[in-house]
Amino acid sequence: MDLNKGRRTITSTFQEPLHQRGFSEAKRLTFTRGTRDRIEIIAFGLRKAKVGSKAGHICFGVGVGVRFEAIERALRNKNTDDRELFPTVGLSLHLLRPERKYTEWCFDDTNSPSMEVISDVDQYAVPFFDRYQNIDDVRSALVSEDPRSWFTLSPAERREMLDAIATLQSAT
User: Fold this and answer.
1) Which residue, 6, 101, 115, is CA-closest to 54?
2) 42 φ, ψ (degrees, to nearest 5)
3) Can you tell me the distance from the alpha carbon of 134 to that of 91, in angstroms, rounded to the nearest whole number?
4) What is the mean pLDDT of each run of 10 residues along the chain (172 residues)?
5) Phi, psi of 106 (to 5 degrees)
6) CB neighbour list of residue 133: distance below 8 Å, 6 or more residues apart
């Protein structure tokens, strides 16, 4: 299977189950739901394994995130097309599991991991989306002293986002 077929396989495999959960394909390998002000994002990243027992198979990971347009405008001072679906906060799906063990799924001739991925979406991604319904929820996570609460932000990115949130909150 080549990467183009892998992209088509991911789309054909996940489009309907994600649609049943309110998501639509916004761009290749990226599914969204929500409003213009707050968008929930599920994105697939794939590769063709070159070595090991998975050599030749199309393997992929899943990222989940939430985009808050107000924070993005404050951080970027404009809405740029190339960042339109970039999440404000997000994590790889495996980091939402209690054991945080890295997971990469692969398609092969006998295996489609679709049920496992959709189960993880239901069990871990949906509660993540529910937890970060508004900007105050994001702020509460970022003020924690525990870096695991900072999504995948560096200390400098965390500070910048907290400053943007403070600017937004002082304007209201």
Assistant:
1) 6
2) -125, 120
3) 17
4) 88 95 95 94 92 85 95 74 76 94 81 86 97 96 92 93 93 78
5) -135, 145
6) 38
Instruction: Give residue 50's pLDDT.
Output: 86
- Alpha carbons 106 and 40: distance in angstroms, whole number: 24
Q: How many residues does the chain have?
A: 172
**Spatial contact of 72 and 36, defined as CB atoms under 8 Å apart:** no
Contact 92, 43 (CB under 8 A): no
- Report the distance separating Cα 159 and Cα 98, nearest Å: 26
CA distance 40 to 169: 22
**Cβ–Cβ < 8 Å for 124, 93:** yes
pLDDT of residue 64: 97
Containing H/E element for 34?
strand 30-34
Q: Which two tokens stand for residue 36?
A: 């213009």
CA distance 10 to 169: 40
